[in-house]
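Troubleshooting entry. The earlier prediction with iron/sulfur cluster gave an output that would not parse, so I re-checked the input for stray whitespace and re-submitted. Clean input:
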Amino acid sequence: MSLDYENDGQLHEKLIEEVLSHYPDKTAKRRKKHLNVAKAGDAPEAAEGQALSECDVKSNIKSIPGVMTIRGCAYAGSKGVVWGPVKDMVHISHGPVGCGQYSWSQRRNYYIGTTGIDTFVTMQFTSDFQEKDIVFGGDKKLEKVIDEIQDLFPLNNGVTIQSECPIGLIGDDIEAVSRKKKKEHGKTIVPVRCEGFRGVSQSLGHHIANDAIRDWVFDGNGNKHEDFEVGPYDVNVIGDYNIGGDAWASRILLEEMGLRVVGNWSGDATLAEIERAPKAKLNLIHCYRSMNYICRHMEEKYGIAWTEYNFFGPSQIAASLRNIAKYFGPEIEANAEAVIAKYQPLVDAVVAKFRPRLEGKTVMLYVGGLRPRHVITAYEDLGMEIVGTGYEFGHNDDYQRTGHYVKDGTLIYDDVTGYELEKFIEGIRPDLVGSGIKEKYPVQKMGIPFRQMHSWDYSGPYHGYDGFAIFARDMDLAINNPVWGLYDAPWKKKAPAPMAIAAE
Ligand code: SF4
């Protein structure tokens, strides 16, 4: 099967019209700007050999009250994505207990360390605000919490204060508390003003978290690590959160080609890795959406170049390794070729096994700020096709980049509502949907296979060559699971043809 604008594109446009027709006029007008069909465009930046389309939708705009949006809040963007995985710091969910409790340890950020002794990623720390804290202020309580953390977990290397909504509403001075406690304990204390009400989605939380690194780690700890020996091939991996071990599967490839990964942000990261990041030669960005801000800052202030890369699926891995190697000259370029050649037999074996089982299967995606485009070629490496994709919190530059991946006729939906997504899935009936936990069970109840593409559904890694083998197996398990043959009630199944019965 191959998508084309004439057939699938027009079908998808009709689907959009049909979905919008059920909204009140004002809502339909606003939502129309977020839904579109990718059209073959003439943007000049297409990577060689890739189809190019324009995904012209409005994005990063406030969701309409009353619709079921799948977005998170700024606190989720800072605590859940950027800061939470930094393993040797304690991250306080500052405010009432629920925000931290109900988002506890959901991202599957793997790490090495002894939990509760020198690493704290899967623990939940909260200041547990009560009514009196809201009325009289919670700064004293915050001080007490930080003191208790030093007593109970003395091997922590620092603390972050992840503000929930009430902190901004009551005007607590968490910056003053941080300065005071930094002096007392001699440790890095980072106040993060990521109150959930800020911005339109978790995306602003990522930005605020990046700014906190700039202001409270780089600027506050500038003279640390003077004895750190810099090398000519030092790189930081930025925006790999080590979901199910992704960063480890990536690091192997970078190290095999002769680079030294001096920092991984922020999966399995230490505070020291963040502090000394400005000493690296190149920043490699995987999740552009959540971490481009700090890379741009490092470029401006420390002169460190950055480049994006994509380690989903062999086509993009090879292209990325070659692009990264270009920054380091012929020796590393030759090493990159050797790494690609080394893993080719693994790639061939995975493709030989799974492509025949997955060829021609269609996929709809709805994920966060990177994967709606980055995983597309990994599916295509297995002969599958993306028929719809969209972002929870993408910005215009994400949709521009998406045009380098999707084909003419692909359905594009930004901040899609629960109702729209359900209707699109019903209308298209793809062979697989890749999205989050909130979408998983309704989709499966529609009889359509599903994979969680935020947390890899308790599996992974999906990055790197090792990850591709797991990715292919997981997609096969989801799509070709015999359970889908049991979906129809026995009395709704087609009766076997009389000839077949006679032959038995
Ligand atoms: S929006 Fe506010 S109250 Fe809700 S989870 Fe985010 S920080 Fe907590």
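This one parsed fine. The CA atoms of residues 400 and 453 lie 21 Å apart.
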